[in-house]
Amino acid sequence: WRRLPGAARARSASPGSPQALDGSFLLSPLGGLMCAQAVLGLLVWSLIAATTYHLHAAYGWVMFVSLFFWILTLLFLVIYLLQLHQKFYMVPWPLVLMICNAVATVLYITAFVTCAAAVQPTSWRQWDYNRRAAASFFACVTMITYGVSTFFSFRAWKGLGSNAATSQVSDHA
């Protein structure tokens, strides 16, 4: 009796087995954008945190938006990498991701405008000015990535694209 390769694969994919990382998700547009958002969001909040942001209320808002969505993006990235979205198929993940990305885009617009308006070139600490200006630039780039991610997650929600996020829609619909 010969063992079939499919039998070994079926046994390793049993419900009790640990989840494997989904490397193909990182190659999808949503996965690549999530990685970019995580890196850019980290840059925004770390640049603001390295200044005397607590002296200016405007930077508190920028810090909140960037840190909140950085954590949320990392959470979604882990959920999709560990394929937990397939385990909890009753949650409409493409819709949740689209709403999150749309809200992040809008709030990052406000954070970018707030950060850019609060940068003052006559700051008594030159390194604060440089970090705040860089944070403003990266907030703009992060806002753009969330906007593009909203587009791709909208396509995934409507089933118009073929990527890792849409696979669970067709599997459990």
From TrEMBL:
InterPro entries: MAL, Marvel, MARVEL-CKLF_proteins
Molecular function as annotated in GO: structural constituent of myelin sheath
Coiled coil: none
Listed Pfam families: MARVEL
Membrane topology recorded in Swiss-Prot or TrEMBL: Multi-pass membrane protein
GO biological process entries: myelination
Protein's cellular compartments: Apical cell membrane; Myelin membrane
Membrane found in the keyword field: yes
Domain of life: Eukaryota
Main location: membrane
Gene Ontology cellular component annotations, sorted alphabetically: apical plasma membrane; myelin sheath
Stretches assigned to the MARVEL domain: 25-158
Transmembrane segments: 21-48, 60-82, 94-119, 134-154
UniProtKB keywords: Cell membrane, Membrane, Transmembrane, Transmembrane helix
UniProt similarity note: Belongs to the MAL family.
Assembly description: Forms oligomers.
Descriptive protein name: Plasmolipin
Organism: Melospiza melodia
